[in-house]
Design goal:
By secondary structure, the chain is of the alpha/beta class. The protein is built from 9 helices and 13 strands. InterPro entries: ATPase_NBD, FtsA/MreB, PilM. Pfam families: PilM_2 (PF11104).
């Protein structure tokens, strides 16, 4: 099947909008472009609802830095904005009957009226296994129309073609898997995405489903990224950086204890850090405090690019592009 040679991953965050474009020619995958726009006012609130006009303006601005042919877009929603359930369905249902059954199941458990939701579902086991019984588990995802639709509308108005809506955790894990494969790494690694308000901790245990926790800790103030159209903030002193790193370590210790208590067969060997904290959090101190290997995850490390773009991408870690890169990888694989 023909696949678009250019795929755009778009990360809509509280502080900025980020986009990463990947190109594909046969088995070769390369970085074609990346860009970040910081809107003059926040376009995302705590209920995950966007300001449609603000988002449209930011997307139109970011498109100016992308190849004109880059139109196929992959988006993500925060995990906390998505209802995720596993339900049992009869294996002999038609597609229409299965959709009705899923709708009925959601109507009994959703905090929102089911007609306010958009939903997706698929078998949680392979077809061969599901035929062994009269019922089979189905993974169900649902999100409010008021959360999802304005994002889709803004991208379409900006000339993009939204193709997939993913979970943010899945985007991070796609990038982690790709990086580990490219670097030939083995063992179980987690991903810690440091945000301004929240931090995400995600792991995909071998043979298991994605493990995700949202941590109520963030950097507390926007940190200007390289290339962002905002003046750089004053760098933190070593003492301030140490304080922030110790606070993050305290939060992560609790999450690591919880993970290890429920996944003793898949212990972590290390964690990758990403997000906007590369100028705030010390990986060497965090490594010592956690007793685990800690590395900043450079999403462009394993993606070749042209000489000019490669020189730019190689100047910094650019870990704030992790979600957008993971989404672009997800689009290439679809």
């Amino acid at each position: 099947m023909f696949q678009s040679p250019l795929t755009v991953g778009i990360d809509i965050g509280h502080h900025s909008i980020k986009a990463v474009v990947l190109s594909q020619k046969k088995s070769q995958l390369a970085l074609s472009a990346f860009a970040e726009v910081v809107p003059p006012a926040p376009i995302l609130n705590d209920q995950h609802t966007v300001d449609p006009e603000g988002l449209l303006s930011a997307i139109r601005q970011i498109r100016k830095s992308l190849p004109r042919a880059a139109r196929r877009a992959i988006l993500a929603l925060p995990d906390s904005a998505v209802i995720s359930k596993v339900i049992q369905l009869d294996t002999n249902l038609t597609d229409e009957e299965a959709e009705f059954a899923v709708t009925q199941a959601l109507s009994a458990s959703s905090p929102f009226p089911v007609d306010e939701l958009r939903l997706d579902f698929y078998p949680a086991v392979s077809p061969g296994l599901s035929e062994m019984g009269t019922t089979a588990p189905y993974q169900v995802f649902a999100a409010r129309k008021t959360t999802l639709d304005p994002r889709i509308t803004a991208l379409k108005k900006a000339g993009l073609r939204p193709a997939i809506m993913e979970l943010q955790t899945h985007a991070l894990l796609w990038l982690a898997d790709f990086t580990a494969e490219q670097l030939g790494l083995s063992g179980q690694w987690g991903v810690v995405d440091i945000g301004q308000r929240l931090t995400e901790f995600a792991v995909c245990p071998a043979g298991g489903s994605a493990y995700h926790r949202e941590i109520a800790w963030g950097l507390g103030q926007p940190v200007a990224a390289q290339g962002a159209e905002t003046p750089a903030l004053t760098l933190l002193s070593p003492e301030q950086s140490e304080t922030q790193t110790k606070q993050l370590a305290d939060q992560l210790r609790r999450q690591l204890q919880l993970y290890n208590s429920t996944h003793a067969a898949a212990p972590l060997e290390g964690v990758w850090l990403c997000g906007g904290g590369q100028h705030v959090v010390s990986e060497t101190l965090l490594e010592r405090l956690l007793g685990l290997e800690v590395q900043w995850l450079n999403p462009f490390r394993c993606l070749p690019s042209g000489k000019r773009l490669g020189e730019i991408a190689g100047e910094h870690t650019y870990s704030q592009y992790a979600v957008a890169t993971g989404l672009a990888l997800r689009g290439v694989a679809s």
